[in-house]
């Protein structure tokens, strides 16, 4: 299957939002939180990389085969420079969406913890799931710089429209003008947990980001008494 680039837009230094379509599919079916694998030949080698889908499953209609990605350009990366060099109309080989990093069905009280482009699957989940009767959801999103709060305005709008949703950005290198949370996501875990649910047994936690953060948070949660079945995660090297 081919994925054809519709557009790509820089949303932070070194980070782009991509819109693709799958021309061979009348409708691209996936669950929020799943990923697609993209492949191509780079320097004589066939490279395949998996990327979390950043958009909600499309409704029926003209754009039902579209999906969105949020990618960081890794200078020495094997494949991201190839994708960043694409222009609208270019195509890349893709595999259909896969993955088990999805919300519990039905969703329960949930804390989502992301760093960097690990925000992508949570954007998909929230755009698809937030409704009037959604249980309490908290998104704890950590980055170094304010300029890298990817989709921050979207999440702020979601918070205004859905009383059950909290958006908690935190910066490790805040400017003097920053009045929000500071430090790593680990520093705000307990507060987020306490405010999201009144019972640990009813709370599910979803983690996505670089391996050190995910591993550290899992250890903290284990020490707090969470069952491993309450924790779902996806980590990047």
Q: Short description, anyone?
A:
With 237 residues, this protein is an alpha/beta fold. The chain is built from 5 helices and 12 strands.
Oligomerization category of the chains in this entry: single chain
Tally of domains: 2
Stated plainly, the CATH topology of the largest domain is called Rossmann fold
Biggest sheet, in brief?
6 strands, antiparallel
User: What's the pLDDT, averaged over the residues?
Assistant: 95
Helix segment count? 5
Tell me which CATH architecture of the largest domain applies here. 3-Layer(aba) Sandwich
Radius of gyration: 18 Å
Strand composition percent: 35-45%
Gap from first CA to last CA: 26 Å
CATH top-level class of the largest domain: Alpha Beta
Helix content: 10-25%
Give the SSE string: EEEEEHEEHEHEEHEHE
Placed side by side, the strands forming the largest sheet appear as 4-3-6-1-2-5
Q: In CATH, what is the homologous superfamily of the largest domain?
A: Nucleotide-binding domain of ferredoxin-NADP reductase (FNR) module
Could you name the key traits of this structure?
237 residues, alpha/beta, Elongation Factor Tu (Ef-tu), domain 3, Rossmann fold, 2 domains, 6-stranded parallel sheet, 5 helices, 36% strand
